[in-house]
Design brief:
Helix content is 80%, strand content 0%. It has 408 residues and is mostly helical.
Length: 408
């Protein structure tokens, strides 16, 4: 699913930028169109996320996942047909971006909260780590797939994305019935939403981890400007665009493989802070580079550092959240990820429009480093956390209820 999502997202960005440039817009003006793509995806997520988290706690997470993937399949098929017939336009791309924002608002909390329900608590940390690795690799490798396929045939990445969504729907169908957690406290929906938000604010570990990623990636996310670098700065075209997106994927994959054999067990908080700082430094190097090999090397480090921090953050957030609140907390986490990605794209595109793409990327990298320093002071628990172990009362709530098959 994630491969399909981000393959499609990259091509939407490329087509938007290319159509704008072909139509006579300046480089900075076309970058502003990329900013709008990010904003149009973020607004639905921002408005709906608190309620979509409640939906993930009250309804079947598996069915929610399947339904939202089906809608993404429809979006991919529509863009495939439009591109094949030469009818794709910026209004169409903007409209699909809005629909994808709505769909992903429901999809993210349901899918994130589902994985921990499927395993016993003894192997929950490993399952969370593998789930985080799966999402991160898909988020970074998907654009590389989209870029290469677009170089072969512009409609091809959308067709492949539709096929990937179909596989994802079938895969979720192999999961049996998953017992829903009993939501504790008042049954009023608005109050349940408030309870979830209150838990995030009260738990400094969860709040600090989520907001660290939010501000660091929001400031230093250079992904939205890859089309600018590929077309006008490095001048490497569509295939170069695919290589730029592949470099972080390789870094993330190698880091994920390392953690699958050598799970992190000590100094998890300081390690997360260090990884985000390295992420910022590598972003600065990419921003100033005019050499394709150096740019690829910097992005390799960006991907590795991002995977390192995501692995720790996702594990801490999931392990420090009771199951009956996991959907709502996941919606807040998903909102922060979307704010750092989609709204971060808007921020990067806008900054590129105002001061130029290179200055925008460099300023973002500096901002990520500053964020690490501030968060280590504002949330000292991030500096002092040594292991993933949650409090005993939370660990007890993670026990996955047995399904009928397990009882048999």
């Amino acid at each position: 699913m994630t491969l399909g999502q981000y393959a499609m997202m990259l091509v939407i960005g490329w087509q938007t930028y290319d159509i704008a440039r072909t139509g006579g817009m300046s480089m900075q003006g076309a970058a502003g169109q990329l900013a709008l793509i990010g904003l149009l995806q973020f607004i639905p997520l921002f408005v709906l996320s608190p309620f979509t988290g409640l939906a993930a706690d009250r309804f079947s997470r598996r069915l929610l996942g399947q339904s939202t993937i089906l809608l993404q399949l429809a979006c991919a098929a529509t863009l495939c047909a439009l591109t094949w017939n030469g009818a794709v336009s910026i209004p169409w791309l903007f409209g699909i971006a809005i629909l994808l924002g709505i769909v992903r608002a429901f999809n993210g909390p349901a899918m994130t909260a589902l994985a921990p329900n499927l395993v016993p608590k003894a192997i929950l940390p490993t399952a969370i780590a593998l789930s985080a690795i799966s999402w991160q690799v898909g988020m970074i490798a998907g654009p590389a797939i989209g870029g290469y396929l677009h170089a072969i045939e512009p409609a091809l990445p959308y067709g492949v994305a539709a096929g990937l969504f179909g596989i994802a729907i079938v895969s979720l169908g192999t999961i049996g019935k998953v017992p829903q957690p009993n939501i504790k406290g008042t049954a009023h929906p608005i109050r349940q939403v408030v309870d979830g938000l209150h838990y995030v604010v009260q738990n400094k570990m969860v709040l600090g981890s989520i907001t660290l990623d939010l501000f660091a990636v929001f400031l230093a996310g250079a992904t939205a400007l890859f089309p600018v670098y590929a077309r006008d700065i490095l001048q490497v075209g569509e295939e170069g665009l695919a290589q730029l997106t592949m470099a972080p994927a390789i870094g993330a994959t190698l880091t994920g493989i390392w953690f699958s054999f050598r799970p992190l067990a000590r100094n998890v908080g300081p390690a997360m802070l260090g990884a985000v700082a390295i992420f910022g430094v590598a972003t600065i190097v990419f921003g100033v580079s005019t050499s394709m090999p150096l740019s690829l090397a910097a992005l390799l480090v960006v991907g590795a550092a991002d995977m390192f921090s995501v692995y720790i953050r996702q594990s801490l957030v999931q392990l420090h959240t009771p199951d009956d609140k996991r959907g709502r907390v996941s919606s807040v986490s998903h909102l922060s990820i979307s704010a750092s990605n989609e709204f971060g794209d808007f921020f990067s595109g806008t900054l590129a429009y105002l001061i130029g793409p290179v200055a925008a990327v460099v300023a973002g990298g500096v901002g990520a480093i500053v964020t690490v320093g501030l968060w280590s002071r504002i949330f000292p628990v991030l500096r002092t956390t040594r292991t993933f172990d949650p409090p005993a009362e939370i660990l007890d709530s993670h026990a996955a209820p047995k399904t009928d098959g397990e009882k048999a």
